[in-house]
Amino acid sequence: MLGYRFSKYVPPPQSGQSDFERLLKVFMQLILITSGNVGEALQWMTEVDRQYKLTTDKYGMGDFIEDLKRNGYITEEGPKGEFKLKPKSEQNLRQSALEEIFGKLKKTKGGEHKTPYSGRGDEVTTDRRDYEFGDTLEQISMTDSLKNAQINHGFEDFLMTEEDLEVVENEFKTQTSTVLMIDISHSMILYGEDRITPAKKVAMALAELITKKYPKDTLDILVFGDDAWKIEIKDLPYLQVGPYHTNTVAGLELSMDILRRRKNTNKQIFMITDGKPTCIKQGIKYYKNSFGLDTKIMNQTLNLASQLRKLKIPVTTFMIATDPYLKSFVRDFTKANNGNAYYSSLQGLGNLVFEDFKRNRRKNL
To answer: Are 125 and 200 contained in the same domain?
Structure first.
């Protein structure tokens, strides 16, 4: 018996990938980390190239910059002549985030959310039922109906009645309005850990997913620090952490205002944060306390959680931290809202967001 012979595996070179495409992946990651600052990203890339030899004698960093301009990724038409991203780069960032985080999703034709219920949807199932008043002609199964007519009335004189008709059951689908809240308080970059970049990446992936897979859904994105404000999808790459406290109340109030104007029955809020509420606004002044769990701030936050519960708007909290007192706050908040909570690492954040997003589409909230 000869058995098996093992040798060192040398992976084949990536076929069909040009020098530009290979460097573009690195550049896009750096663009996200530098919040859309093209000049800073290129400086970092030059330093990485110096240490790890990303380029070759035939294709240098200058060639890559020229190709970025030629292919419509960057422009020198900034206010001071500096490099700026073009919309093609923003689209590339969202698509890359989608492939990285949700790349294993199966494609569907309908572009909407499945539920356990049947109804007048647009995706055909294998189920059949008797015709009912209000069913459309498109739903009638002609083959099954003709067979029923022949069985019931014979072959000689063809006759078809309403009792012979069978209808193909379609899959009822839901439309959902989602608000994604992103914490941009200073703690999102504290302790040597970049938490804002994964949050931006998840937001971009979710935005691209809903746009392409669930076009009838709505997604609104807002950020919250001392205050809360809505941002556009195209603003995500440029999002930066500021010297802010965490005004969760302002974020929830703005989310409620946005969802109040949405006509969909299913509504929900996703909140990505790494800390406790430390700020509320009273008139034109701010009440702040970063030390521990302030009762005044907690009570307002929990009251809003209860209001959202009455409105049947669940809040799913993705806590990027594991401190015991933070878990205590999230536990109380989730109980008041009857929502969900996850204590996520940065690496697994995207999958958790999608799983909860998908789960909530399978029921009427």
So the answer is: no
Residues 6+ apart with CB under 8 A from 222: 179, 180, 181, 182, 228, 229, 230, 231, 251, 254, 255, 258
Residues 67 and 212 in one domain: no
C-beta separation of 68 from 169 below 8 A: no
pTM of the predicted protein model: 0.71
Does 6 reside within a domain? no
- Give yes or no: residues 52 and 130 share one domain: no
Angle between helices 19-33 and 196-213 (to 10 degrees): 120
Specify whether 204 is located in the same domain as 153: no
Q: Which domain range does residue 50 map to?
A: 19-85
pLDDT digits (tens, 9 = 90+) for 334-349: 999 998 887 766 666 6
Specify whether 220 is located in the same domain as 353. yes
Give 17-85 as a DSSP string.
--HHHHHHHHHHHHHHHTTT-HHHHHHHHHHHHHHH--S-SSS-HHHHHHHHHHTTSEES-STTS--EE
Phi, psi of 269 (to 5 degrees): -125, 135
Structure tokens at 89: 């780069």
Pair 279, 227: CB distance under 8 Å: no
What Rg, from alpha-carbon coordinates, does the chain have?
Answer: 27
Within this chain, do residues 321 and 189 fall inside the same structural domain, yes or no?
Answer: yes
Are the C-beta atoms of 228 and 254 separated by less than 8 Å?
Answer: yes
Instruction: Please tell me the predicted confidence (pLDDT) of residue 226.
Output: 96
In a domain, 104, yes or no: no
Asked if 318 and 272 count as a contact pair (C-beta separation under 8 A), the reply is yes
Sequence-separated (6 or more) residues with CB below 8 Å from residue 300: 249, 280
Alpha carbon separation from 194 to 159, 200, 213, 257, 329 (Å, rounded): 73, 11, 29, 30, 23
Position 103 in a domain? no
Please provide the average confidence, as pLDDT, over all residues in the chain: 83
Q: Does 94 map to a domain?
A: no
N residues, the chain: 365
Task: Tell me the torsion sign for CA atoms 93, 98, 103, 109.
Answer: negative
> Who's near 270: CB < 8 A, 6+ residues apart?
178, 179, 180, 181, 206, 315, 316, 318, 353, 356, 357
Q: How open is the CA angle 306-308-311, to the nearest 5 degrees?
A: 115
